[in-house]
Amino acid sequence: MVDDITFDLQAILYGGETTMIETRLTKLLGTKYPIIAGGLQWLANAEYVAAAARAGTLGFITAASFPDSGELSAEIQKCRDLSQGNPFGVNVSMFPKLVPGERTQEVFELLVKEGVKFVETSGRNPEPYLPMLKEAGIKVIHKVPGVKFAKKAEAIGVDAVTVIGAECGGHPGLDMIGTMVQANVAARAVNIPLIVGGGIGTGEQLVAALALGADGVIIGTRFLVAQEIWAHELYKQKLIDSDETDTTLLMHTLRNTMRALRNETTGEVQKIEMETPGNLEAMMPHISGKVGKVAYETGDWTKGAMAVGQSVAFANKIEPLSTIVDTLMNEANSSMARLANIGGGLDAMRDAG
């Protein structure tokens, strides 16, 4: 909550660089800033995650991007080398239900063996795996689309919870509660460190999230234009040219709503959903993650269901991730200075009265 947040007020009030924002999240993670660099399927590799680590945030390698255990192990070791001693984690996205051939147990065993310190889970209840992870000293952050799931995650003993609002890229859940409401409801409902996300891409929004009671934010779409993201430059340029209206929702009839970049594929899937609701077989050739991966490789953004949130409005240039983080913190610095000035004015008014 807000009482647990410490800012470098000297820097804020006198125009210097903000060197520290300490919250329960930064204490848990050992990071400089209360920012999570969201796991991005196919894109969150060692280079990106290590860049997030060096910039003072925490990133997650997406385990699903490396279906071969040897490749995942090598990517973790590479990230450890590139991170220069700064913390990083691994994202483990589980299917809503256990399915034949799922590698979740195997992946967690690998993470324990590799000495990974932080894991982000999503998709379903991670409770069966918590004893193994806790025994290994791994901190678990569970990502959910609603407050009721956050309360359950707290009850089973995760270390922190991420609650995502409707503006996010990817899967915002079925209730579609906006981040402004979701964040404050969650802050009043859970007692463990709280991360909020969905449409967040500026330092002003970071300050707002902290004011609402969160301990930090998760950012995905805003970081898609980082130089360390391997996706084709034409794809990144499309994001730069887009605004907050250039995403759309699909897969409602599968009860797995997704926010994606508006393109030919999303239009085709929406047509299928109108004509034959819930027809997964007809949709699969369009929504398969492998189609999206090809789009990242070729730059042909017209094909594939590519997760993009409304914060694409803030993706304005291709630059190093550290530069984007510096911009965010400068914006947060300016936002706090404005609040300090407002507070001083209110104090003067009260004194005069």
Provide an overview of this structure.
Residues 9-15 have low confidence and may be disordered. The chain folds into 2 domains: 2-224 and 320-341, Alpha-Beta Barrel (TIM Barrel); 247-307, no CATH class. The chain has 353 residues and is an alpha/beta fold. Helix content is 44%, strand content 14%. Strands 3-4-5-6-7-8-9-10 form an 8-stranded parallel barrel, surrounded by 5 helices. Strands 1-2 form a two-stranded antiparallel sheet.
Main features:
353 residues; alpha/beta; TIM Barrel; 14% strand; globular
- The rounded Rg comes to 20 Å
Order of strands in the sheet with most strands = 3-4-5-6-7-8-9-10
Helix content: 40-55%
The total strand number stands at 12
Distance between the termini: 31 Å
Q: Give the DSSP E fraction (strand runs of 2 or more residues).
A: 5-15%
Number of discrete domains: 2
H and E order: EHEHEHEHEHEHEHEHEHEHEEHHHH
User: CATH class of the largest domain, please?
Assistant: Alpha Beta
CATH architecture name of the largest domain: Alpha-Beta Barrel
Shape: globular
Largest sheet: 8 strands, parallel, barrel
What is the overall pLDDT average? 91
Overall structural class, as computed from helix and strand content, comes to alpha/beta
Q: Uncertain spans, ≥5 residues at pLDDT below 50?
A: 9-15
